[in-house]
Amino acid sequence: MSSNTISIVIVGYGGMGSYHAKHLIAGNPRLKVTGTYDVLPERQAASEQDGYPAYASYEEVLNDAAVDVILIATPNDVHKELAIAAMKHGKHVICEKPVTIYAKEFEEMMAVSEETGRVLMVHQNRRWDEDFRIIKAMYDKRTIGDLFQIESRVHGANGIPGDWRHLEAHGGGMLLDWGVHLLDQFLFMIDSKITSVSSRLSFILGDEVDDGFDAILEFENGVTAIVEVGTTNFITLPRWYVKGTEGTAVIEDWSLKGRAVVRNNEVGKVEPKPIQAGVGLTKTMAPPSEEATITTTLPAAFEHASSFYDNFAAVVQGTVEPIVKNHEVLRVLNLIENIFEAGRTREVIKDFDTYTSTK
Ligand code: NAD
User: Fold this and answer.
1) Is residue 306 domain-resident?
2) Residue 272: what pLDDT?
3) Which of 41, 132, 182, 246 is packed most tightly, with the most Cβ within 10 A?
4) pLDDT per residue as tens digits for the range 322-358
5) What pLDDT sits at residue 312?
6) Is any atom of ligand 1 closer than 6 Å to the C-beta of 84?
């Protein structure tokens, strides 16, 4: 570490590796990308062109005493071996998600972090997404009462992207790719044990890995989470749809378009007027009368104490706890394994959650 600047080498200079360099680390005064390593000569050339010197081999990175941190942004199946070698050579590690395909592999990485005293932090960056932080504020502050059903969806229509994401051996598939983010958000928000999980995996596109999935998680505190990832959705459902004891809220998309509708407790019970619905008449499904509800904007988002990278730098300097904790990451990987199992067997799975209260 030269003075206060932490030197980072990015291993895997593809889509995400280069995004880290140009958008996430650039501009942070405490961190500096001092080089990259990629197995592909064309990605090494791209790195040089972007102004980041390319190392000729991983050994060269490992043996360079000037390197403080190795950031791993390769396909998922090689994260573990690269991370363990890095920590054994005295480097701190940031690893992309999903950190490993199986929980057991991450346990091995955690053990090496313990042994070597090197920081190991997983880039679960979507804990910082504003749409999620708004839902977390609603959950924590009970702005529409107690949330009892939270539906989180990401829908695309472009199938599985790229090359390695189509292959099981590389840890491809959408449950590992996007599921890990949505599930991490739920477990970060809801401080309660998961009592059961059921799921369906989608193989519409004929890949050997899932092109999407849906899962229902039930928590001991009464919350139900519905999680869905799809890559064959030409019309999308809202990013979030949440039901609370006092109202309902929706966030349509990443532009944060949305609203909450809550019961107006100032007026007494208002009998709805029957409406024509299809060939029938209904009062039950009539929209609430205007005076019975209040439509509001969404609340201000929950704020983390710092950004991912400011937190990482402070963790390396030994001044704070990581926001993304390894036992939380491990819990998500265990959940993913059980969602795969529930999808394959079509059984509801119970008694698997490794939850310990954070309170
Ligand atoms: P990519 O295919 O664009 O890039 C991967 C790069 O790694 C390629 O250039 C490849 O040549 C290189 N590589 C492969 N094996 C290597 C090895 N052994 N040593 C060095 N380089 C190697 O993939 P991507 O989309 O950038 O994904 C990379 C990682 O980042 C994955 O784990 C993915 O899940 C993660 N990711 C995270 C986010 C996020 O928001 N957190 C977004 C996208 C991708």
Assistant:
1) no
2) 84
3) 132
4) 999 999 999 999 999 999 999 999 999 999 999 987 6
5) 98
6) no
Does residue 18's CB lie within 6 angstroms of at least one atom of ligand 1?
A: no
Domain-terminating residue out of 96, 123, 150: 123
Decide if pLDDT at 70 tops 80. Answer: yes
Neighbour tally for 277: CB within 10 Å: 12
Q: Are residues 208 and 69 in the same domain?
A: no
Q: The domain containing residue 53 runs over which residues?
A: 6-123
Burial pattern 121-148, b for ≥16 Cβ within 10 A else e, equals bbbbbbbbbebbbbbbbbbeeebbeebe
Here the tokens at position 196 are 């059961």
Which helix (H) or strand (E) element contains residue 78? Answer: none
Longest dimension (CA), the chain: 76
- Distance between Cα 168 and ligand 1 center (Å): 15
What is the chain's mean pLDDT, rounded? 96
User: Are residues 37 and 158 both part of a single domain?
Assistant: no
Instruction: Give percent helix, percent strand, percent coil of the chain, each to the nearest 5.
Output: 35, 25, 40
pLDDT in tens, 252-270: 999 999 999 999 988 878 8
73 C-alpha vs ligand 1 centroid, how far in Å?
4
- Place 145 in a pLDDT band, splitting at 50, 70 and 90: very high
CA distance 212 to 343: 11
Task: Kindly state whether residue 109 falls inside one of the protein's structural domains.
Answer: yes
Does position 271 have pLDDT exceeding 90, yes or no? no
Taking the centre of ligand 1 as the mean of its atom positions, its distance from the CA of residue 17, in whole angstroms, is 6
Q: Is 38 in the pocket of ligand 1 (CB under 6 A)?
A: yes
> Residue 127: CB within 6 Å of ligand 1?
no
CB 237 within 8 A of CB 243: no
171 C-beta closer than 6 A to ligand 1: no
Q: Is 43 in the pocket of ligand 1 (CB under 6 A)?
A: yes
